[in-house]
Amino acid sequence: KAGVTQTPRYLIKTRGQQVTLSCSPISGHRSVSWYQQTPGQGLQFLFEYFSETQRNKGNFPGRFSGRQFSNSRSEMNVSTLELGDSALYLCASSLDAGVYGYTFGSGTRLTVV
Amino acid sequence: DAKTTQPPSMDCAEGRAANLPCNHSTISGNEYVYWYRQIHSQGPQYIIHGLKNNETNEMASLIITEDRKSSTLILPHATLRDTAVYYCIVRPMNSGGYQKVTFGTGTKLQVIP
């Protein structure tokens, strides 16, 4: 079966711009979570959605937001980009909020210049 | 989430068993131990999880001490493809909890030919 698909794979944006990243979970998975990975901070939890509702949120500023659609696809948006937002953004899906493990996508590499 | 402590790096000779330790001394009674690994530039991959009994699957074995304060992931015959960062995390196995998952910094395992 198809895995978790994240688009685009690579993105270059300018400071102050905004960006939208997309994640298509494994078919049947209703839970989608997002992570930011940087060399200095490691993997940091952003937020988790289940059935279009945000269930949990990490310690990120309000510039980071997300949503989930009725087909479980999810998007995350970062507004007013800063250089420090350059990172690998990972999406993970699961049947049941990760109880039996999350399946991760390959990520979107965002570079802010 | 309870915190975990892992050594930052380990080496293992190809074909030998790789034993990766994890300390989770503040683990709660309802928290499971999960292991993931991340190969360079890919999303993390779920390996195994357990509560208090030892677990084995096609990828690895998980040994949890009787007091549950530490665990060891065992890759029985390490190959070069097992070179990755290994993350140990703890979280409740409760789909209603939707706990945010904290990955920590993990152990970088280098398998040496």
Task: Provide a compact summary of the structure.
The complex is a heterodimer of chains A (113) and B (113). Chain A has 113 residues and is mainly beta.
Which properties best describe this structure?
heterodimer, A: 113 residues, mainly beta, 7-stranded mixed β-sheet, 4-stranded antiparallel β-sheet, 11 strands, globular, B: 113 residues, 5-stranded mixed β-sheet, 0% helix
In terms of topology, how is this protein built?
The complex is a heterodimer of chains A (113) and B (113).
Chain A: E1 5-7, E2 10-13, E3 19-24, E4 31-38, E5 42-50, E6 53-57, E7 64-68, E8 74-78, E9 87-94, E10 103-104, E11 108-112
Parallel strand pairs in A: 2-11
Antiparallel strand pairs in A: 1-3, 3-8, 4-5, 4-9, 5-6, 7-8, 9-10, 9-11
Chain B: E1 9-13, E2 18-23, E3 31-38, E4 45-50, E5 55-56, E6 61-64, E7 70-75, E8 84-92, E9 107-112
Parallel strand pairs in B: 1-9
Antiparallel strand pairs in B: 2-7, 3-4, 3-8, 5-6, 6-7, 8-9
Helicity of chain A, in percent?
under 10%
- Spatial separation of the terminal alpha carbons of chain B: 37 Å
Largest sheet of chain B: 5 strands, mixed
* Secondary-structure element pattern of chain A, one letter each: EEEEEEEEEEE
Mean pLDDT of chain A: 92
Mean pLDDT figure of chain B: 90
Given helix and strand content, the structural type of chain A is mainly beta
Distance separating the two termini of chain A: 37 Å
Gross morphology of chain B is globular
Oligomer: heterodimer
Question: Can you list the strand order of the major beta sheet of chain B?
Answer: 1-9-8-3-4
Largest interface: A-B, 28 and 25 residues
Structural class of chain B, by secondary structure, is mainly beta
Helical amount among residues of chain B, as a percent range? under 10%
Number of strands of chain A: 11
- What Rg of chain B is obtained from the alpha carbons, in whole angstroms? 13 Å
Outline type of chain A: globular
The Rg value of chain A, from CA coordinates, equals 13 Å
Helix count of chain A?
0
Residue stretches of chain B low in confidence (pLDDT < 50, at least 5 long) are none
